[in-house]
Amino acid sequence: MTEFSANPYRAPQRARPDRLKPGVEHGRWWPLWRLQQAMAADINRVYTDAHVTGLKESWVMELLTLHEHGPMTLTELAEAVDRTHSAISQKVAAMRAAGFVVTVPGLDARSKLVELTDKTRRIAGLLAAEWRATEAAVAELEAEIPYPLSLVVSDLEHALRRESFYDRIRRRLGQDPDGTAQGVD
Q: What is the architecture, at CATH level 2, of domain 55-136?
């Protein structure tokens, strides 16, 4: 288990090895996950400062999409934000429970339309402003480092087109199919 430092942007300190379960530790991208969580928490603080309660930063893209395009079916919303139907269905359920969207019957009995509540319409300007400010802050951060994360992602996508992540995992499992080998490179 990793001990969290007071600074959420600092690399985590490793826990003492005797406290780890055999074979269980955080992976190579644990610092990236921590960084994303810390940045998400900062975005959520912006909404807290504006007295917006119950909003998660991970909902903003969907809310802005609905604000721009109006009511959409789950399928349309999923396609618009490049998510699976299942993921959008779960997210819409959470946003509905928090009072940011409602669902109403669609044109046929099998579909539902997702639409913004008045509460969300009132804060749509803030959502859009936060989105723009966040994108500008990300661009600023990328300008401060020698190798921007957006370029890293692009390079990783290119590498995964050569060999998928699934195929890489399966190849590694082929070297150790029952999990008994140690230090497989």
A: Orthogonal Bundle (1.10)
* Alpha carbons 114 and 179: distance in angstroms, whole number: 45
Q: What does the pLDDT look like over 67-117, one tens digit per residue? A: 999 999 999 999 999 999 999 999 999 999 999 999 999 888 788 899 999
113: which 2 tokens? Answer: 């339309």
Domain with CATH 1.10.10.10 in the chain: 55-136
Q: Coil, strand, or helix at residue 88?
A: helix
CB 70 within 8 A of CB 101: no
The secondary structure of 137-158 as a DSSP string is HHHHHHHHSSS-HHHHHHHHHH
On whether the CB atoms of residues 101 and 116 are closer than 8 A, the answer is: yes
pLDDT in tens, 118-155: 999 999 999 999 999 999 999 999 999 999 999 999 99
CA distances from 143 to 127, 148, 151, 169 (A): 24, 7, 12, 33
